[in-house]
Every structure is written in structure tokens, then in C-alpha cells.
Write a structure and sequence with these properties.
single chain, mainly alpha, 3 helices
Length: 88
Amino acid sequence: MLEYKEKMRDWPLERQGTIYRGMVFAQTEDQIVLAGAASNAGINRMILSKQSDHERLEVISHVNSLTRKLITATVSYVGKANYKEAEK
């Protein structure tokens, strides 16, 4: 996840882009990717261990309520929208 820190808000877009490219690069390290996959697998196992759809929905609802407090947006961008300096 990319954190949008308060101090970054006034930085020029080019500088923010450089910082975010560094964050993306760091997040592709093997250990980071493996930890994320392990976390997702653990959540999936917890959901699948429940006996009924009702129990599974309760788990999913709880996980969603936690993540809503942490994640504001997920963006996947491939550089085809003509956002000028943002694409650099």
C-alpha cells in the first residue's frame, strides 16, 4: 500500500511520482510479496474454515470493516489516460 503522507501533499507532482515509484519498487521485494500472499492465504483459510455461509459472511464483514479504516483507494494505472506529468 502506498501511504499519502501529510508532508507530501504540498510537493510538486513530479516529486510525489518519484517517491511513489520508489515505494512501488520497495513493495516488489520478495519478502514483502510473500508476506502479503501469506496474509491473504490466512484470511482465506479463516473464511473457508467456517461451517456456514452466515459465519463466512460475518468474517468477511469484520475484515472489510477493518480494511475500510486503513485503505482509502487502490489504483492501477498503466499510463494510457494522458495525464501528462503524472504519467512520467
